């Protein structure tokens, strides 16, 4: 799948004041250069009202931080947000965290800066409708075969769906077998099922911003948007993955699962497994030599960048 | 680089319009220049009226003869006639002040050139009349003073004038579409970092031609206003961003930038750059992403907007050429006219089932119905889509041409009016626009990416006999309220406005019938 736009953008000769780390300058995550989340008045706290309750938060807080400080009237899922590490998010992609503010109308709480004096409500019809519809939109594009999924019982999408009392998603579920993408089972460490991906971008940020490995990227647009690889590989095995597992750790669904855990939480049904649940699976080529956790492609990348092939480089057929 | 030859001044002159969608212009220009050494032959930009192209104007002693659809044989005759001291005999001849800096328009009664008499030609005044990159021509139209020169001396006065006039941004991809622009200027000035000014002319919708017209035909008016803006907000750079395919607009903008730099001290450099020919590339944050050289275009999360976090994180004032043209009018101390809440004029390109599209200019106190005089519609008018690809569908053009008037009628403000005759099915039309949204979106946010998919599915259900109006309205509301950028916020408008104005057609389709007879695959 090509990710190229119709033409190459031309970069103007304009001073770029943003610092570029030498380590990350070749990383192409395919995502926007998002602004930081902060209020216009740093070093200050903000006091705001959430569902009638007054709450004071620090200046770099979001409305979601403020709602989490209070006992809100309605459930705010905020599915794509990840609050355990600064380098990941807020992406504000799933829009299941919408709240209503007196000042700006319905806004995404996960990334909207908490400004002093704001009045926020979680329980208005507009806000709860927006959250519900967006959650159902996510489910409409998700492989809902939870019983064969390795993340069954520890899936954030499952959790918020249960918490939000989803019984029957209004747009149905993704069950058109022809439309399933093949399951990528090529790597001995990480399995990818793109049919479960909600494009929250956590794995891309974990890979690029935290591990600084530059393996994963977002590619394509519209309905063809997907998680891909920066070296244009089609499979995980052909990527430059070092099997650190951070992508699988942060993935909120069963889209990225450690191979050892792919069947950890499935409900045993004879003959029905994660691997055969969608029909098509990409397997590794058997004769591929893999001495360690990094894929052979990572080794190629190393030997290309070094003047002389290093001792760690995997042997090739010519050797 | 020397500033190109001007078209304004005494003595006979032949103007050959080059640009727009016609490629005969250069051939006519060559023929005209080959035919004479005495008469000035000047290449000008297009007028916006496609039905007249290729257009040649012959001017002598304060009289101009209009020769639309000119041929090589005609242009040779015109030049020879002018050499002999007389004007060619044409259907439209207009008398004017010999030093006129704006195109004198033929009276609307003269059939072939009537389109030029529709609305007012204020920001379009130089289009087809002044040599696009001639600073001399442009200076004459501004009483010899560039707006940028005045802005250097008193930058605050520029900001004050724009704020007092309450000018609103025009078009898609503007940093303050339909909102007063002085707000983003203030924010950009007050934010840490050196501001950048971006002229966003990237528009892949072939029907939205006004920005391209301004850059091809009157680029100096846009660039001078952008430079004045840069002085007002203390910016260090001006960038002009176009589609990759729009080579002529880019070439003329570059010529104009070079001519401006040669005319005055280039203390603020103007760079002309191209972005992808994708519809999304015109959205303001994706425009910035393209200019930064990102390999995949994706809308940026907001707030904060580009006025605080723009190109490379620097505060950025981003407007379309249409907005800068209005800034130019305000700074030239012209009476802007129009309604006080949205002063000035708006440019509209009339397209659809018409003989030839035309870009015309209406004061904001006019009504859209005036555009009917600019085009010949095949058949009777059934539906108009106002506002671009994701505009609103309506039967009624009796709507004010102001931002408030258009929004009040639930129409879009992106300066496009597509007219459709009785054979166009509104359900199918709305469906095509929904499909476009599904295919062209950047893929970032769920309400737009997944919402547009479900929007198409729900419209398919109508053809299958099930019209779920409540579901459609709920989905459209969520897309409008929760999408990250204007693409998703506006993507459902053709569907919702079609449901409002043409509801019986939806019910008829659910019953297996297409009233306009154009959907042959309706299930029965």
From TrEMBL, chain B:
It holds the Pfam family NADH_4Fe-4S. It comes from the Archaea. Keywords: 4Fe-4S, Iron, Iron-sulfur, Metal-binding. GO terms for molecular function: 4 iron, 4 sulfur cluster binding; metal ion binding. Residues 427-472 form the NADH-ubiquinone oxidoreductase 51kDa subunit iron-sulphur binding domain. InterPro entries: Nuo51_FMN-bd (IPR011538), Nuo51_FMN-bd_sf (IPR037225), Nuop51_4Fe4S-bd (IPR019575), Nuop51_4Fe4S-bd_sf (IPR037207). Transmembrane segments: none annotated. SUPFAM superfamilies: Nqo1 FMN-binding domain-like, Nqo1C-terminal domain-like. Belongs to the complex I 51 kDa subunit family. This is Respiratory-chain NADH dehydrogenase domain 51 kDa subunit. It comes from Halococcus saccharolyticus DSM 5350.
């Amino acid at each position: 799948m090509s990710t190229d736009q119709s033409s190459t953008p031309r970069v103007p000769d304009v001073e770029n004041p943003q610092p570029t780390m030498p380590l990350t300058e070749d990383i192409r995550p395919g995502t926007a250069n998002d602004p930081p989340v902060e209020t216009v008045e740093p070093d200050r706290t903000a006091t705001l009202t959430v569902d009638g309750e007054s709450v004071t938060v620090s200046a770099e807080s979001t409305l979601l931080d403020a709602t989490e400080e209070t006992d809100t009237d309605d459930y705010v899922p905020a599915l794509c947000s990840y609050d355990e590490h600064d380098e990941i998010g807020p992406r504000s992609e799933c829009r299941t965290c919408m709240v209503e503010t007196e000042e700006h109308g319905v806004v995404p709480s996960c990334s909207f800066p908490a400004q002093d004096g704001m009045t926020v409500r979680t329980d208005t019809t507009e806000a709860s409708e927006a959250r519900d519809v967006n959650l159902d939109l996510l489910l409409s594009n998700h492989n809902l075969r939870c019983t064969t999924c390795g993340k069954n019982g520890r899936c954030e999408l499952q959790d918020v769906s249960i918490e939000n009392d989803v019984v029957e998603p209004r747009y149905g579920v993704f069950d058109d077998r022809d439309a399933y993408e093949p399951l990528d089972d090529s790597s001995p460490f990480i399995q990818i099922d793109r049919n479960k991906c909600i494009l929250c971008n956590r794995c891309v940020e974990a890979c690029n911003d935290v591990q600084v490995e530059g393996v994963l990227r977002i590619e394509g647009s519209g309905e063809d948007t997907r998680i891909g690889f920066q070296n244009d590989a089609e499979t995980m095995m052909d990527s430059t993955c070092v099997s650190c597992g951070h992508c699988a750790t942060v993935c909120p669904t069963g889209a990225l699962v450690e191979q050892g855990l792919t069947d950890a939480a499935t409900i045993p049904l004879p003959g029905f497994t994660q691997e055969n649940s969608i029909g098509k699976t990409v397997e590794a080529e058997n004769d591929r030599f893999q001495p360690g956790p990094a894929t052979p492609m990572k080794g190629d990348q190393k030997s290309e960048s070094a003047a002389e092939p290093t001792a760690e480089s995997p042997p090739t057929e010519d050797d | 680089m020397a500033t190109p030859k001007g078209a304004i001044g005494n003595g006979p002159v032949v103007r050959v319009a080059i640009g727009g969608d016609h490629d005969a212009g250069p051939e006519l220009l060559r023929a005209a220049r080959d035919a004479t050494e005495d008469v000035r032959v000047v290449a000008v930009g297009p007028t916006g009226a496609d039905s007249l192209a290729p257009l040649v104007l012959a001017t002598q002693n304060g009289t101009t003869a209009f020769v639309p659809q000119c041929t090589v044989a005609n242009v040779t005759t015109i030049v020879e006639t002018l050499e002999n001291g007389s004007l060619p005999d044409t259907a439209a001849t207009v008398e004017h002040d010999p030093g006129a800096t704006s195109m004198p328009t033929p009276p609307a009664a003269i059939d072939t050139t009537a389109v030029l008499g529709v609305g007012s030609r204020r920001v379009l005044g130089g289009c087809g009349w002044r040599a696009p990159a001639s600073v001399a021509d442009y200076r004459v139209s501004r009483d010899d003073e560039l707006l940028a020169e005045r802005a250097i001396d008193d930058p605050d006065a520029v900001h004050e004038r724009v704020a007092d006039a309450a000018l609103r941004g025009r078009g898609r991809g503007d940093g303050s579409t339909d909102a007063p622009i002085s707000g983003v200027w203030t924010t950009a000035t007050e934010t840490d970092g050196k501001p950048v000014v971006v002229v966003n002319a990237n528009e892949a919708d072939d029907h939205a031609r006004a920005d391209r017209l301004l850059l091809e035909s009157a680029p100096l008016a846009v660039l001078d206003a952008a430079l004045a803006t840069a002085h007002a907000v203390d910016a260090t750079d001006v960038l002009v961003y176009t589609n990759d395919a729009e080579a002529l607009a880019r070439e003329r903008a570059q010529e104009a930038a070079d001519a401006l730099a040669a005319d005055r001290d280039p203390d603020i450099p103007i760079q002309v750059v191209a972005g992808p020919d994708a519809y999304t590339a015109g959205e303001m944050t994706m425009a910035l992403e393209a200019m930064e050289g990102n390999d995949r275009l994706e809308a940026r999360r907001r707030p904060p907007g580009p006025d605080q976090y723009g190109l490379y994180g620097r505060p950025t004032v981003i407007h379309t050429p249409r907005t800068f043209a209005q800034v130019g009018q305000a700074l030239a101390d012209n009476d802007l006219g129009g309604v006080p809440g949205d002063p000035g004029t708006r440019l509209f390109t009339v397209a659809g089932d018409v003989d030839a599209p035309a870009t015309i200019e209406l004061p904001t106190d006019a009504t859209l119905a005036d555009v009917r005089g600019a085009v010949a519609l095949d058949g009777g008018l059934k539906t108009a889509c106002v506002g671009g690809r994701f505009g609103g569908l309506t039967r009624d053009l009796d709507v004010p041409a102001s931002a408030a008037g258009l929004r009040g009628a639930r129409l879009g403000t992106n300066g496009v009016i597509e007219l459709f005759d009785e054979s166009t099915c509104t359900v199918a039309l709305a469906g095509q626009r929904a499909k476009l949204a599904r295919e062209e979106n950047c893929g970032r946010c769920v309400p737009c990416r997944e919402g547009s998919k479900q929007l198409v599915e729900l419209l398919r259900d109508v053809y299958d006999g099930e019209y779920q109006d409540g579901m459609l309205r709920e989905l459209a509301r969520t897309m409008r309220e929760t999408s990250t950028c204007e693409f998703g916020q506006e993507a459902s408008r053709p569907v919702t406005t079609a449901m409002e104005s043409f509801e019986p057609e939806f019910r008829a389709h659910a019953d297996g019938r297409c009233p306009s007879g154009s959907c042959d695959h309706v299930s029965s």
